[in-house]
Write a structure and sequence with these properties.
six-stranded antiparallel barrel; six-stranded antiparallel beta barrel; Thrombin, subunit H; alpha+beta; 12 strands; 5 helices; elongated
């Protein structure tokens, strides 16, 4: 206590000056409209800048929650797309005012489930990643997996709560691709050379193609709905020994930083597979 009194006595003049200065500024700004307006303008500007910095910091710490909310919203919206419903052709004309949200009915073809990426293996020629969804959540082998940006891979194994996905960056990966603007198809695969590029082959040279063109999934695959972005053309190789182009594509998905994914279930794939296998056996 004695030290406190000694400190106050030592700096008494400074504290007295500080109190009087505050009192003088208060009277100046409070009783003079011009100075009051100027002070309020400066104070509001400073307060606004502080609030902006605080909001930016708060937004940063809420990014994880925001991403999870967006993933749920993407799942809901994708399950409402009319492209994911397919009904067999009949002579009757069916009209409806809305698209039914039916997870088991014959009209729905594709069903989406959001899944968080929990591990990545991107250091080997054959790359995989793990997602936090398994058989208990409806995920099984041979389901496609996409990111918010495009194709990611195909489920190759599933436990009760986790699944392993063969990445698009895998030497055994192969996806049927289509030139978005013209509709011609080819096969997309990884050559093991780059972590952000794949190759598309079997594209006829008669097809008009330029750098920057989008390559999407075609209607011939069973893992992915048509129209999912695979990548964009960065290089066109004119193979003189054949009538086909070889295209180098920059992948739509950034495999080194992806955190959220969507598992795609083709509800009509089993029926198509059984029918095609039965035809092959009879040949």
């Amino acid at each position: 206590m004695r030290n406190i009194f000694v400190f106050i006595r030592k700096f008494f003049n400074f504290f007295f000056f500080l109190v009087m200065q505050i009192a003088a500024l208060y009277m100046l700004f409070h009783y003079n409209q011009f100075h009051e307006a100027a002070f309020m303008g400066v104070a509001n500007e400073i307060t606004g800048k502080v609030s902006k910095r605080y909001n930016n910091i708060e937004y940063y710490f809420h990014l994880k929650k925001t991403n999870e909310s967006l993933a749920k919203e993407n799942e809901r919206l994708r399950n409402m797309l009319k492209e994911d419903f397919e009904v067999a052709d009949t002579s009757a004309v069916l009209k409806t005012d809305s698209i039914p949200y039916d997870t088991t009915g014959i009209r729905r073809k594709y069903l989406y489930r959001d899944a968080k990426v929990v591990n990545r293996f991107l250091v080997f020629p054959n790359n995989y990643f793990s997602i936090h969804r398994g058989t208990n959540q409806g995920v099984r082998k041979d389901m496609g997996v996409i990111s918010p940006d495009g194709v990611m891979g195909v489920v190759v194994n599933a436990s009760e709560n986790y699944s392993v996905v063969m990445s698009l960056l895998h030497l055994q990966s192969s996806v049927s691709g289509r030139v978005k603007k013209s509709g011609e198809t080819g096969q997309v695969y990884w050559d093991g050379k780059s972590s952000d590029a794949v190759i598309m082959k079997n594209l006829p040279k008669s097809v008009p193609i330029t750098k920057g063109d989008s390559i999407v999934t075609s209607q011939y695959g069973t893992y992915f709905p048509p129209g999912i972005l695979i990548g964009t053309v960065t290089e066109i190789v004119d193979d003189k020994s054949s009538n086909f182009y070889v295209l180098k594509l920059k992948t739509a998905t950034n495999f080194s930083s992806v955190e959220h994914s969507m598992v795609v279930e083709n509800l009509q794939a089993e029926e198509q597979k059984k029918l095609e296998e039965a035809v092959k056996k009879n040949q």
